[in-house]
Amino acid sequence: MTQQLTEKSDVYSFGVVMLELITARQPIEKGKYIICEVQLMMDKNDEEHYGLRELMDRSIQNSGTLTGFGRFLELALQCVEESAADRPTMSELVKAIETILQNDGMNTNSTSASSSATEFAASKGAPKHPYNDGLPKKEVNDSTGAFDYSGGYAVSAKIEPK
Questions:
Q1: Residue 126 falls inside a structural domain
Q2: Which neighbouring-strand residues pair with 57?
């Protein structure tokens, strides 16, 4: 809103990304803001889905138990607080996410968010983009030297010594 980039504006943006993960929706769809939609539908009395069942990504809905979902949602909403002073710092955010994962029985063995990329390598299957789910794939034959994907997913090529 202020057009000023700060650590707290980065936290706000990350909060929007967290809400995108929960809903598999873009930040603005059909003139509706994801933050407003989540805030309007949220119901803390619904201990399982927090009133967001209709808004949630289907893969989250169908995952069985949603242990830690409420804490993740609360954290996302703290990140998108209107006042920057009410938002956590990025380091507080990382610690909170690691705590959620540890409390829910996931072994992170992480001391920082940067080490979590190796955990993604253990994931099964190719990454899916929620916005393009079910849409036909475009083939790209770009020989202009475009950047290769350098994310956390392991490449399946076998490397042998010379």
A1: no
A2: none
The 10s digit of each residue's pLDDT in 66-121 is 788 889 999 999 999 999 999 999 999 999 999 988 887 665 555 544 444 434 44
Q: Which of 56, 47, 67, 61 is nearest to 21 (CA)?
A: 56
Q: Give yes or no for a contact between 111 and 105, defined as CB atoms under 8 angstroms apart.
A: no
Judge whether 21 lies within some domain: yes
State residue 80's pLDDT score.
Answer: 95
Domain residue limits at 29: 7-110
What is the spatial distance between Cα 151 and Cα 146, in angstroms, rounded to a whole number?
A: 15
Is residue 24 a contact partner of residue 57, using CB atoms and an 8 Å limit? yes
Domain count for the chain, please give it: 1
**How many angstroms separate the CA atoms of 141 and 74, rounded?**
42
117-131 pLDDT, tens digit each: 434 444 445 555 555
Domain containing 45 — which CATH number? 1.10.510.10
Structure tokens belonging to residue 119: 């955990």
Asked whether residue 46 is domain-assigned, the answer is yes
